[in-house]
Amino acid sequence: MNSSILKISKVTKKYKNINVLDNVNMTIKKGQIYGLIGLNGAGKSTLIRIITGLVSEDSGSVELFGEHEKDKIENSRKRIGAIIETPALYENKTAYENIHINRIQKGIPGEDCIEKVLNMVGLNDIKDKKVKTLSLGTKQILGIAMALLGEPEFLILDEPINALDPIRIIEIRELLKRLNEEYGVTMLISSHILGELYHIANHYGIIHKGKLIEEITIDELNDRCKKFIHIKVDNSANAAVILNKKLNTLNYNVFPGNVIKLYDYIEESGKVTEILVKEGVTVEQIMPMGEDLETYFSEVIGGLENV
């Protein structure tokens, strides 16, 4: 079984009496690409700042590489590479010079590592170009190269594909997958776009209003997005109780307009209808359907607020 790189237990963080993070639990195992999905302001960046030691949690605990004592965690953070928001770059210096400065700041001896990370990300041919002449996507890849200095085992990227054009998104997507497959780098990648993370990550956490409301694997996500039964009734609250008691399932979400999406009994919509009607629920519409990834994400957070 893979060892855990990161374990977060009951982490809470408040700013001005507002819960930015509320009792968050999360585990990332070695070799995973973990996609952290949430709307802007959901708590993604705060959680990443706690993991990287830029801010402290108010309560709860963080364990890195099996260490949880404060001084040992700080030492473990040397095994992390991170980009939080946009990379800090010197526009009037070359790509090589930027990495060189970052190497000195990190206290990494020797310059061989500069050529190595440039080759890893495929930027060796632009190393002598000034940063101000580079595209936004190339700057983002340069930031990833800087994060790879010191051969980190755990790479943390906060919105790495934000505002990039489709071609650059594909380049960064392929780069990250290659770093994971060829170099064994474990990753935590945050985004508000599930559709893009779907092409990179193999595990996902959905965060909403400071709560981690769901963790799901790529296989589970694919399964959830395949099929469901769309049910429109006269009273969704009563119908939900009946689904629980009579069909022994909680695998559904309730939405405004008395709509329920049931992820069990996909091939037995007749049975579902029969039981609901027998219990006095008027079934206005029932049919098997499927949904895309963005719809799934939207309805997980929307359904949470309407149950």
UniProtKB/TrEMBL annotation:
GO terms for molecular function: ATP binding; ATP hydrolysis activity. The keyword ATP-binding applies. Keywords: ATP-binding, Nucleotide-binding, Transport. Pfam families: ABC_tran (PF00005). Residues 6-234 form the ABC transporter domain. InterPro entries: AAA+_ATPase (IPR003593), ABC_transporter-like_ATP-bd (IPR003439), P-loop_NTPase (IPR027417). Belongs to the ABC transporter superfamily. This is ABC transporter related protein. It comes from Clostridium carboxidivorans P7.
